[in-house]
Input
Amino acid sequence: MKPLLRVRDLVVEFHLDRGTLRAVNRVSLDVYPGEIMAIVGESGSGKSTLAFALLNLVPPPGRIVEGQVSFNGTDVLALRGDALRQYRWREVAMVFQAAQNVLNPVMRVVDHFLDTARDHGLTNEGEVLAWAEELLRMVRLEPARVFSAYPHELSGGMRQRVVIALSLLLKPRMVILDEPTTALDVVTQAYIMDILNEIRREMNLTMLLLTHDMSVVAKIADRVGVMYAGQVMEIADVDSIFYRPRHPYTVGLIHAAPSLLGDLDRKQPIPGSPPDLINPPPGCPFRPRCGYASARCEEDPGLHVIADGHWVACHHWEQVTHHAPVS
Amino acid sequence: MAVLKRIAVALVTLFFVTTLTFFVVRNTPGDALQVWALEIVQTYGISMEDAMKQVRAMYGYDPDEPVLSQYIRYVKGLARGNLGTSILYKSSVNEIVFQALPWTVFILSTSLVLSFSIGALLGMAIAWKRKTVLDPIITGYAAITGATPDYITALILLIIFAINLKWFPLKGAYDPAVKPGFTWEFIKSVLYHGVLPIAAYTFENTAAWALAMKGSAVSVLGEDYIMAAWARGLKERRIMTRYMGRNAMLPLVTGLAIAFGSMMGGSVLIETIFNYPGIGWFFNQAVARRDYGLMQGLFFLTAAAVILANLIADLLYTRLDPRIRLEE
Output
């Protein structure tokens, strides 16, 4: 199957007073039609920057320095003007973090739907509203109540469901979900994940889910990419990631997440902290925190295939075992 | 309920301001009555005593009357809409206000609308396109007009355009040869006489509005909903007006409403320099010639207008920003 989204060697840099920060460092990944691909990583691992780069919308002082992003055959980074505007939301829509004020505080919810439709050439207001109502019902909101509300009049969970409905307005092929449930309470989180799963099945949508939450990944994702310090450490299907992880950082992430049945004491945080992304040391960025690290790790391992659909950026992947001590 | 509470607070404020100005004005040495009586003595040849009696009756003021009872009479007058009496013009303050206010409102509202809209557009433009030559130019312009008092600007305009080039008239609100009325000739004359005062006022205030708007707009541009609007593929123009502009405008609304209120007091110096018969010009006359009645009336007018404008700003703000509701 041909990938819907193909990213190769993508580099995004922020030019700051202190130096140049490489937020996304030679990232390559494929997303296939109809799947849910999760990108897991700690905050600061470059997930959000990657998401904006996929929309060719990196805010200054950030800049896409090199690499390719192609979506359904279109070279996204070459798009300009109206073509770029049409690509955004119509091809790839985005659901932002729940804690963000994504809706214009002085506009009613309904006007966000109408605005978006109008600027994408949908002039039949009746049709747009009917479809928006259907979407709101799909995310289990009452259109009549929500339409006339201002964003601040809705709860966090309701607002996030509005944003999800809004992301589907133009029937995009792919939706990027950036920490869609962070900052919501656990019950609402589960509720929203259910809704997303349902929508994906009904609309045959491709989703790119960015999260730090391994339990969300386990529940919903088909394939997983693990990001650390702006780089992809490992890519594999969800079972391989959880049962046969080959990167020490992936193993660390799994062990750092509390398990529902196990003892809370068994939770093992990864010692140390992520590297400074300005002038990072050469080689594997996880090296200082890694129990397998050797002199060889000062050389960049690069992402390579170790099994069908399983990619790893580690020199010692063959030694890595599931229960390995991290340090 | 909340609205009524705001109105009550406004009325109480107005009451305090009135009381304060009354006692301040009454405690300044007042020999304007004697000046007036002397005039009558000279004109009609009656005795000073009779003249004083007549003057007191006309002015409604008896120096021997206890201050408290004077005060009560003054407040009662205000309650009936009587702003007092001008000794200098020998007429009621109401009449003077009725004559002068339209000129002040004409000049100041025109220049306020001009300076606010030009300033807001400039501010939005420099916030939107961060690195343009416009930014340092506007900032420099703001620094210069911020540092020059308005009467200097007015004098410079007067010297260049009225005295040297003789493009515009030196004084007045219209040509006395033209009969006032709703005729094109009269309107033309009014506009012609208004150009310099309006220009002086607009020139003074545009940059300040531009900087206020720029500051507000830059902070709005950092908001998530701007980024989200780009991600939704909205048109640049819509993001600039409905998303940035509308939100950036909010903090300026209060300032605008208060500017409208304080303009009722007129611009004393600008109107005096252009000899423009507005409230500011009469204020200058009242102060220069110790006309306490007129001063008091105009003070009251200005205070009432500012307080009213504040009230309107409060109420307007709740209409513009749905997040703000007057708390009970």
In short: Chain B has 13 helices and two strands. The longest helix of chain B spans residues 184-221. Residues 26 and 179 of chain B are 40 Å apart (CA to CA). The interface with chain A takes residues 223-225, 227-235, 238, 242-243, 246-247, 250, 320-323 of chain B (CB under 8 Å).
